[in-house]
Amino acid sequence: MSLSFELGVLYGVVRAGYAAGVTPGIETVTERKPLAFRKFAELAAGAWK
Asked: Which end of the chain is more exposed for a tag (fewer CB within 10 A), N or C?
């Protein structure tokens, strides 16, 4: 399979809403609330510079 085909399938899955579900996985494993993306980005900003 080509990369473009695989990306098309991934796009279709996301567009159809199959990736929209939120699960308690992070909270279950780490026993704390997950970070908001903005907070994660602030904390990880140094890794991207």
From this structure: C
d(CA 37, CA 10): 22
What string of DSSP letters covers 1-49?
A: --HHHHHHHHHHHHHTTTT----SHHHHHHSSPPPPHHHHHHHHGGGG-
Residue at 36: amino acid letter: A
As given in the structure block, the two tokens for residue 32 are 């704390």
Over the stretch 8-39, which tens digit does the pLDDT of each residue have? 999 999 999 988 887 898 899 999 988 899 99
